[in-house]
Amino acid sequence: MTPDAVTPGGGRGATRVLVLNCGSSSVKYRLVDMADGRRLAGGLAERIGEGDGGRIVHTSGSGKPREQSHLFPDHAAALKAVAEELRADGLGLDAPGLAAVGHRVVHGGTRFTAPTLVTDEVLDEVRALTPLAPLHNPANVTGIEVARSLRPDLPQVAVFDTAFHATLPEHAARYALDRAVADRYSVRRYGFHGTSHQYVSRSTAALLGRDPAEVNVIVLHLGNGASASAVAGGVCVETSMGMTPLEGLVMGTRSGDIDPAVVFHLHRVGGLSVDALDELLNRRSGLLGLCGENDMREIVRRREQGDAEAGTAFDVYIHRLRKYIGAYCAVLGRVDALAFTAGVGENSAPVRSAATAGLEGLGIAVDPARNALPPQGPRLISADHSRVAVAVVPTDEEFEIARQTFALVHRSRG
Ligand code: AMP
């Protein structure tokens, strides 16, 4: 697409960006005005392709959420419902001021290392990456196709979850595998949650009143999926997820790091098929596998009541986290800040406390009273004497996608 072809979108004064995050059975969306960063509307359409029980929860501005039941046979039906909800607020896809649609795309492989204007060729290349993200990329492609069909004149921008990690040096990206086999099958470490790591590392620098280029940050994105990254002067140099989002930290339902020979063993001795192993490691492991529960609030509550399985699940989770903090201190050499984000990182004082306890030798000391304060905006929880600033920084992947989308469209317009 030439820069000229971008201009028709919403015209030069258009400052709104619609962000679409299409998962395998859901669509998260947000309309942002980039003139002032305001969230104009947003919501979630769920249970796509799952028969009954589909619904859309839509919030306009700072109003109350409104919920509607729907049958969503496919993503096209869900996206049409999203467009209708927006139209009801006078914010439909044909309303003036819409500059572009920004799409979260999970896997960009080695091909896409920056936000990219969608063309037919780009869509073909994203489709070709499906073997690396079989659950996610097809849903992302469908979202783009439907949005394009609704507004063919509007720029559509793909923002890749892997892109922020494209700067990983080869020694961090390459597995110690036979080089020819690894290269033939695109086996390497890509990393995920990139928009979150980028947003949080930059926001942490802002919280410290410093230029991102000056600070080294360890970001701990602890949600249902969890990943850590080491960001040196704004550049990602290491991250815990690998070829897929299965590697690294203990997560809600994913095992994170495991000896790969466990897979051979369970196949040969346990008779588990490849699909059964995939399901085991991605959906029935992690906190859920350890104690039957993947909500950290419930695990902390059960542990406090003396539940041994919940106690072990918490300890395994924290131990892995501490190993990564230590490793990333070594990777970075000098650490200026440690930032906690996402559902667990932003909300769980017990997790932050246990993850950082006894790390004074690494310059990390958390103030218990600051840590215990209820969630609020970005804030410091480190003790005054802590050499490393410890921060809680709410992530905002949708805003970051909107920002990157708008910046690209703006640049293209010249
Ligand atoms: P996310 O994937 O970022 O939406 O995070 C979802 C996870 O955050 C849930 O599975 C919960 O385990 C966790 N979470 C949310 N609120 C809290 C809280 N107040 N305390 C501990 N964990 C929480």
Briefly characterize the structure.
By secondary structure, the chain is α/β, with parallel strands linked by helices. 38% of the residues lie in helices and 19% in strands.
What does this structure look like?
The structure is a single chain. The protein is of the alpha/beta class and 414 residues long. The chain folds into two domains: 145 residues, 2-Layer Sandwich (Nucleotidyltransferase, domain 5); 190 residues, ATPase, nucleotide binding domain (Nucleotidyltransferase, domain 5). The protein is built from 16 helices and 14 strands. A hairpin with an 8-residue loop joins β3 and β4. The longest helix has 25 residues. Bound molecules: adenosine monophosphate. The site of adenosine monophosphate (AMP) has 12 residues, from α11 and α13.
Shape: globular
Major sheet strand order: 5-4-3-2-1-6-8-7
Structural class by sheet pairing and helices: alpha/beta
Instruction: Give the strand tally.
Output: 14
The chain-level mean pLDDT equals 94
Stated plainly, the CATH topology of the largest domain is called Nucleotidyltransferase, domain 5
**The number of domains:** 2
The percentage of residues in β strands lies in 15-25%
Q: End-to-end span in angstroms?
A: 14 Å
What's the CATH architecture name of the largest domain?
Answer: 2-Layer Sandwich
- Ligand catalogue: adenosine monophosphate
Number of helices: 16
What profile does the largest beta sheet have?
A: 8 strands, mixed
CATH superfamily of the largest domain: ATPase, nucleotide binding domain
Mind telling me the C-alpha Rg?
22 Å
Q: Which parts are unreliable, with pLDDT below 50 for 5 consecutive residues or more?
A: 1-9
CATH class of the largest domain: Alpha Beta
